[in-house]
Amino acid sequence: MSTAETAADVQTSVASLSKEDLLRDYRLGWESRHASLAGRKEVFMGKAKFGIFGDGKEVPQLAMARAFRAGDWRAGYYRDQTFMLAIGELTLQQYFAQLYAHADVEAEPSTAGRAMNGHFGTRHLDEDGNYRNLAESKNSSADISPTGGQMPRLVGLAYASKLFRQNPELHQFSQFSVNGNEVAFGTIGNASTSEGMFFEAINAAGVLQIPMLVSVWDDHYGISVPAEYQTTKQNISEILKGFQREGEGQDGFEIFRVRGWDYPALIDTYQRATEVCRTQHVPVLIHVQEVTQPQGHSTSGSHERYKSKDRLSWEEEHDCLRKLREWLLVEGHASEQELDQIEAEAKETVKQARTAAWNEFFNPIKQEAAEVVELLNRLVKDNGAENQLHELVESLAHNPAPIRADLVRTVRRALRQVRGQRSGARRELQNWLEQALAENADRYNSYLFSQSEEAIGNIEEVKAVFAADAPQVDGREVLQACFDANFQRDPRIFAIGEDVGRIGDVNQAFAGLQEKFGELRVTDTGIRECTIVGQGIGAAMRGLRPITEIQYLDYLLYAIQILSDDVACLQYRTKGGQKAPLIVRTRGHRLEGIWHSGSPIQMILGSIRGMHLCVPRNMTQAAGFYNTLLRSDEPAIVIECLNGYRLKERIPQNVGEFTLPLGQPETLKKGDDLTIVTYGSMCRIVLDAAKQLEEVGIKVEVIDVQTLLPFDVDHVIADSLQRTNRVLFADEDVPGGATAFMMQQVLDEQQAYRFLDSQPRCLAAQPHRPPYGSDGDYFSKPNVEDVFDAVYEIMQEADPKRFPAIY
């Protein structure tokens, strides 16, 4: 294990810093500290809802910033304000704008007020949604709150550097990388290293040998819980000793320990560690020990409740800024007066930034409030002052710090009071409300998906073309041909996953492609679903086009958290500032047993809004979706049918070029009596049942929704119900799962309830996972007879003479 405490080594790097450099760091450290102190006060004054700050971490972050170069990347957590200030990607005014939740991307470029304070990110996209030159900028991926959740993405950010360096075909993409020289810097608190994602990411980085540099800020606590409850031996670097590489050229990590208040040792450690990481692509862990947290965890409480007096005294003595001041004085770099002046100026700078941020945030709202009060007073003039309307106006007029919700709430309640009336004042107020709702929709509800030219809706549909003598082949061969064509078309595309490489995945859709395109583009991974997805997220953020495979849909549970909290909300939480066009390829529905027959669609639908969900019924449809998605810049999950790889299909002549639009159902069979809405493996079962129903005089229309997100954008299903007047929603999820989702979309969203003559029905699986064996499948998931009986019962109720009871 490396250390960073020898005087000879320290002098090498610190000696290169000028007095101006040193005092700049001191000034930045104190500006950040005063920002934390002021931020806490703003919360307690009611000007912000919550505060979590980076005090105590200033000095190590200043050292890290000095090693961070243009082109590098950060995946951090919510205490990295000093680092962001030091690299020039955050101003103090922006810091306070985020604290106030200023919903303006110019004022608060990290999240446009959508994430609580301490969540940082740089804008990687221009106004049209296209990538900027990321090789020339200092880049921060957008933070998320779940502790440890930044680690899977960090693996991908570093992995991209390996691909850019080792794959010559990628050297042309100079806006994303310069020969893979970029380091991915990760930060995490010591308590969060207890998360499984941390250990999985560390292991993955050690296997991959990628330029990933992880800093652990060790302040001994995780909120109120001390290290003895968090980490074996209370020391993360101690228990990771086995990852230390044995020598240069060997696999493994370089591990450093350094104290968080020792400025010269920190400067030296980060310079040496980053150089190894950058040049040799060796992952590095820097355990920054003896860090303090002067204000405790957050504004939710005081750390005096759980820290002893001795601990509090020690923290005061070892405060990193206090120690930096002592070192500057001892080494003769500054006088007491100079440092006092810097601290005073830092406090005043923060005060000015805070005031400017508040005025920029609040003054427009105050102006809107005055406008609303004026409009409301016109209503009062028409209706008199002795009523509830007058009280609403008075309440808003005397509100010293209204928010936009106060304005809209007041207007809506005021309009209730004058419902049914006609007046110019009422029309003016209605117009104001319509405009306000539209503006606030942009502020708070926009950019769930891409707005660029590469958005899904802008991908031109290309029909599949089949030769007259097109042979029938296994479905897997259609996918194989599709992937082959796309890999030839775009060198940025690569695929990773368990068994994807040498054997071409367990169902052979990648068979032979590793041999053809090389291990860098078709790559086996370990069993680590969370970081397989994370590897894809980070690489996608850096301009690459990953296909990450989760072997079975049931195992998506290992990755659903990171999909939900990271990639699904990425465009949203940055208001179009970042994107990660990740494709997650998996397979599900019917096979065998509890853990290989999953259809947990309800869970997925509720977790990944911001991603697309494709549920193709066969491999040709899946290929069409892949062709579309690989030309788009939006993330998606594609669930292939487990029992479809050996079924025969025809390969289109344009197998790598034809595209399928998302959100467009396909009518598989026409009928007049009832509409069955389904998807995936259920399509074959429903079609079989439809054939048997026709034998007893019932003609059903079968619609394959094809994608659940988006869902039937042109209301094809509602049009069908207008003719058939009856509907059955069928799938393999649990009761109340995706069938309930489809019913809500059709009856509520599409308002197709108007066309129904019979009760709408849902047919789902049993409320448990399917047991092993064919009988287990038959009695657990909808079968042909279940579909037949469900439809027949609906028709019997409508016409009992024509359709007498069967049972």
Give a quick rundown of the structure:
By secondary structure, this protein is α/β, with parallel strands linked by helices.
Describe it for me?
E1 component of the 2-oxoglutarate dehydrogenase (OGDH) complex which catalyzes the decarboxylation of 2-oxoglutarate, the first step in the conversion of 2-oxoglutarate to succinyl-CoA and CO(2). This is Thiamine pyrophosphate-dependent enzyme. Its cofactor is thiamine diphosphate. It is a single chain. α25 links the parallel β22 (727-730) and β23 (761-763). Mean pLDDT is 95; it is low at 2-11. This protein is globular. The strands form 5 sheets. The chain has a 7-stranded parallel beta sheet, sandwiched between helices. It has a 7-stranded mixed beta sheet with strand order 12-11-13-14-16-15-21, sandwiched between helices. Strands 18-20-19-22-23 form a 5-stranded mixed beta sheet, with helices on both faces. 43% of the residues lie in helices and 12% in strands. It has 27 helices and 23 strands. With 807 residues, it is α/β, with parallel strands linked by helices.
Q: Main β-sheet, in a few words?
A: 7 strands, parallel
Please indicate the percent range of residues in DSSP E strands (runs of 2 or more): 5-15%
User: What is the C-alpha radius of gyration, as a whole number of Å?
Assistant: 30 Å
Counting copies of identical and different chains, the oligomeric state is single chain
Number of helices: 27
What overall geometry do the principal axes of the alpha carbons give? Answer: globular
Total number of beta strands: 23
Overall average pLDDT = 95
Q: What fraction, in percent, of the residue positions are helical?
A: 40-55%
Give the low-confidence spans: 2-11
Structural class: alpha/beta
CA distance, first residue to last residue: 76 Å
Strands ordered across the widest β-sheet: 1-8-9-5-4-2-3
